[in-house]
Amino acid sequence: MADIQSEDLYALLGVPRTATREEIQSAYKKKARELHPDVNKSPDAEDRFKQVAAAYAILKDPDQRRRYDAFGFNRRPKAETHRPASSAGGRPRPQPGFRPADFGFGDVRFEDINIDAEDIKNPFDFFLRREEKRRRKKEREVSLKISLAHAYKGTTLNMVLDLPTELGRTETKRIRLKIPKGAKEGDRMKLKDPECVVILAFEDDPLWSVDGRDVSTTLDITPWEGALGSTVTFETPGGPVTLKVPTGASSGQKLRLRGKGLPQKPGRDGEPGDLYVTLRVVLPRALSDEERGLFEQLSKVSAFRPRS
Q: Domains in the chain, start-ordered, CATH in brackets?
């Protein structure tokens, strides 16, 4: 990417030097939408987007903009081409000008900035997130899979962690980790001893799937439970629940149990998730003589014709 110090910041945004703050903001939003790498697939789109965001970060701030207008990226006024050394014979005295660090960029190298969709919302965010990502890179991360029951009820686990060291070796630590009620996929648990971050994930489960705090499953019912309607109690990772099956229920019908999904963590605002149950009508594999006779009788008296 071209050095930002060689660019005209106003030209990057496509505005005149007399542009108001509102005009600069409007131009930035337009440019950001056009150049965002998630939208613009040009090879240089990401670099151009970073330049535009950096330009806006400077021109949005009145003090930074005044210094840029007066000095550009130099340490002396634009009209001044040379200043002799001080009479003391030492180095030239520092002039009240501008350095990139003066704009709050510090040691930012623009080629290191990672951009994501949130950068359009606030141009300063990508600098803040960059520091957050840099900090996280130094943290040792360990993935831990937990059961859905652990997330519903909370638990304490005895664990053995194999942690990478700076020397490329592995450090083994035994810990007790408290999993809070309401834990969910992607939660980050920061530990002090050992210093690391445990990232939670759910174990694969053929019976249950999770989306945020909503939980889904499939429930088998008998033909007569579906036809006549019934009240069914079944086990979930959070304990037994009761479901009212409506009359005439059929396979594939989805029912919702409000508030029976993953709970919120203690002390947190918000509602618990919901439990979604997809019904599946299951026929008996073997029939007794009496059952067969009843089915045959039903076939003669029923007017139900699903294919007509």
A: 4-78+91-136 (1.10.287.110), 139-202 (2.60.260.20), 209-301 (2.60.260.20)
